[in-house]
UniProtKB/TrEMBL annotation, chain A:
Protein name: TonB dependent receptor
Signal peptide feature range: none
SUPFAM superfamilies associated with the record: Carboxypeptidase regulatory domain-like (SSF49464), Porins (SSF56935)
Gene3D superfamilies in the record: Carboxypeptidase-like, regulatory domain (2.60.40.1120), TonB-dependent receptor, beta-barrel domain (2.40.170.20)
Principal localisation: membrane
UniProtKB/TrEMBL annotation, chain B:
Annotated organism of origin: Xylanibacter ruminicola (Prevotella ruminicola)
UniProt name for this protein: Tetratricopeptide repeat-containing protein
Amino acid sequence: MKHQFAHIIIMLFVALSAKSQTTVSGVVTDGREPLAGANVFIVGTIDGCLTDSLGRFSFETTITGEATLRVTYMGFDDYNLTLSPSHPLTFSPSHPLTICLHERATAIDEVVVTASTYSFGKSDNFKTMNALDVVMSGNSCGDIVASLQSLPGTQKVGEDGKLYVRGGESEECQTFVNGMHVLVPYSTNTENTAVRGRFSPFLFKGINFSLGGYSGEYGQALSAVLPMETTDMATSDKFGVSASLVDWNVGGTKVFTNSALSFNAALTSMGLYDRLFTQRQDFTHPYRKLSGEAQYKKEYHGRGVLKSYVGYDFTSVGLHQDERHLSLKEHNIYANLTYKTPVGRGYTLFAGIANSSVFNHIDDAVSVGDHYCNFRNEVHLKVELRKVCNSVLKVQAGIEDYIRNSTLRFAPYRYNLDYNLLATHIDAQWRMVPKLFLNVSARMEMMDRHCQLMPRATLSYIPNKRWQFSLVAGQYSQTAEDDILAQSNKSLCQSTASHIILSMQYKSASSLLRIEPYYKKYSHLPLLHNGIYQSDGYGYSKGVDVYVENHSISSRLSTTLAYSFNDSERLYMDYTQPCTPGFASRHNLRLTAKYALGKFIIGIADSYATGRHYANGTTPYYNSLDANITYLLSPKVIIYSSLNNILGRTNIFRYDAAGNGITSSRDRFFYIGIFVSLKNNKAYDISNF
Amino acid sequence: MTSQIFKQFAAIVVFVFAGVININAQQANADDMLQLVAKLQRLEAMQPDCVGPKYQLALQSLNYAVMNPYAPQTENVIAQAEEAINKMEKMKGADQSDLCTLRGFLFMVRIVQNPAQNGQRYYMDVLQNYEKALRLNPNNALAQQLQQKFLEGMKQHTN
């Protein structure tokens, strides 16, 4: 009897146990292919499993009655199947579930529209490139402007080295640091000598180079903008020095509890280099630049962030040319202060102020005995409010003011120019339907009671993480240069440009392809009529940019190809008929490769551009093969060397009025530098500062 | 406060899984680690408003990725870790020192995946995040261990 009772009890337990253990099985797909590694589980329990390589799952659960089956997989919407008592869990291996997951629609604050923009650094998490990659390809020697010229859409204008974008003048590209405008982002040099950018790319954690079609936040740029964001607060003290044939640097950072103070000082001098290597120009006083920079950053307990920057350059150079003893001196000071803080209810407030002052003094500028004195000053004020309303809408609105002053004394010519430019903008980024995004913005600028409204829009279709298609259209404006504005007694209206850009991008783990045809139409460009400037100029620029980046050949090798075709014509300045501007070349090609080999990193680049057209001829094609090598000598010492134009080709950039070819002062340029960390346990940090 | 929650939660997690899976990442095989990550994800779904499960999920996901840098599931697991870290950043109770440790670990995983390409690109981010983590909490043992391991790795690579 006891045995019988025991058997009954055991049977009951087995029966109950068998009833409470329900097997859940099935297959998970994305509608086409099975998904391996999807997490299938009953919500509120840890009952579940991962799908196998064929998307199959099978697990047991003790849950009966009301329950929710959830399937999660990165990049896909969660799948939930709720089961009520009337629809209890009745799964069995003979009735497997077939679950189809749908790709997750990107939220508005996650989407990054890449049309017409090249982003470096880590402002957008993990990028395939960063500033270091660009700088170490070819031989930019740490110059941010030269680095950016490896991208499609930029053109090689060797006689001044500035950024010329998609058939536009260098003045049409404007630079912003932490959202604040920089009046003169270049260092200075004598005529027909390439200048460098004022800022090191390593100052910035994010560089977003937009070649057109930018949002309403940016103005006073007809062709392109270069917004850069300085690095976050340092975490430890730093101190380092570097030396090369042409420059000597010392920089460091002192970290406090919630703030950091950095400094950097640099002396650039071509004196030693000029003695070692021959050159074409007769410098009476070698190029020298003394720079000092300081930054102070403060974090307010994860709330607001205060960033300040001040930089001063003094440049001097003397040149003997055509009986003249040209002597150039420039003082350039730039300072900005920004504060960004969340202000509740999802709003973020940004406020900033920046001041640029540039003083130029040139003796024997045009003829023996003349004196050229120019002072330019700009104060930029900006306030902006940003809000991510929900997963489909993001808005920002702001107001800014540019207060500009320029004085010139160049006997017998002189002027004093003052003007104010008030601007406001509103931007809205809206996910219309999953995968389709619309960015609409409007910018209004007011100068001397002349009002200008500029609508801009970008429609993007982002079907998945690999593909992105965008159509961009917008209107942009810019005041004429100070000299022209003063000559016209401020009667010139702003020049305008309309952009239409089509962008297609494919991005995989190891490669990137981008193709962008564009069309720009210029209106109201300054045009000289009988010695007086009027806003009657016009023009167009059209073309296509292609960019390919590849890392798939070897994990140690990265290669890039940048090709630009440009066809542009304009009637402006002193032109008598529409023609291709002298700075524009029809075809530009740049190939780069970078290879990491143990402690060495080797970079090689080739730049090619077809000839440029001038009234007195067309220049030969431009070609330069460049190489660089970086060697980690010890954990605290890095050696960097580069050679520009290995083949020694004499590139003619343009012709002067007499028909003489303008070339650089030397065909090849050799650079070698050593970077030493004097503090900390790491290799020299180029961003010591 | 958050650290206390972390510690309690970590203790529970260890207790629950100690008998099931060998938590020692050095010895656990890839499948076991992946199953652990999946279970942590289920636990995270049980307590969506708690920081602790997210921390453990991110940590074990990165553990898996650093041990299996080229496995087919690794990119998804890293994305999952990144998502968990991003969610933690938005939570008021998240410990900033732990967040910095996870961010440093995330960059470290990227370097392990491709030292030639990512070493020079991210080494400073790794060091700065660990330094900040230790500045905020000098007793953060995980940050200390990871920093030490990373410095040893760098020393081997550069000497």
